[in-house]
Amino acid sequence: MDYAKYVGMTYPPPHGCLMMVADILRNEYEIPIPIDIAERVFETMRDHLDKVEDPIEGDVVLMKGNSWHVGLVTGPGTMIHVSQPGGEVVVERYSSLQWRSRIRGFYRWQ
């Protein structure tokens, strides 16, 4: 999967990370996620994601800090996500010190 076309894009807060994940799942994996409001996107994802122990490319990464945050696994130990509210899309290691303590789980579309 070529995630490079998403890197550097911006998604508006407060749900930018969720909308980025929805865009990639919809456009790259052909998963039927609604395009409209974040609440419907969240409900659709919540109803179709199952927690997994061994993440693979395309799995959703759920993180917690001051607020909830999501990204998408791009490969072993890496994820694509919105760097900060209103920030750019980046690829980073989810196993890094910055992120590993914040990970609450990995989820796969069913």
Q: How is the topology of this model organized?
A:
Layout: H1 16-29, H2 38-48, E1 49-52, E2 60-64, E3 68-75, E4 78-82, E5 89-93, H3 97-100, E6 103-109
Antiparallel strand pairs: 1-6, 2-3, 2-6, 3-4, 4-5
Notes on the protein architecture:
By secondary structure, the chain is an alpha+beta fold. It has a single domain (16-109), classed as endopeptidase fold (from Nostoc punctiforme) (Alpha-Beta Complex), CATH 3.90.1720.10. It is 26% helix and 31% strand. It contains 3 helices and 6 strands, in the order ααβββββαβ. The chain has helices at residues 16-29, 38-48, 97-100, and strands at residues 49-52, 60-64, 68-75, 78-82, 89-93, 103-109. It has a 6-stranded antiparallel β-sheet with strand order 1-6-2-3-4-5. Strand 3 (68-75) and strand 4 form a beta hairpin. The longest helix has 14 residues, at 16-29. The protein starts with 15 loop residues before the first helix and ends with a strand.
Question: Would you identify the CATH architecture?
Answer: Alpha-Beta Complex
Order of helical and strand elements: HHEEEEEHE
Q: How are the strands ordered across the major sheet?
A: 1-6-2-3-4-5
> Helix/strand/pairing class, anyone?
alpha+beta
Question: Ends: how far apart?
Answer: 19 Å
- Overall spatial form: globular
Q: Using the coordinates above, name the CATH class.
A: Alpha Beta
Mind summarizing the main beta sheet?
A: 6 strands, antiparallel
Rg over CA atoms, rounded to whole Å, is 13 Å
How many separate domains make up the residues? 1
Low-confidence sequence ranges = none
Number of helical regions: 3
CATH superfamily: endopeptidase domain like (from Nostoc punctiforme)
Proportion of residues in β-strands: 25-35%
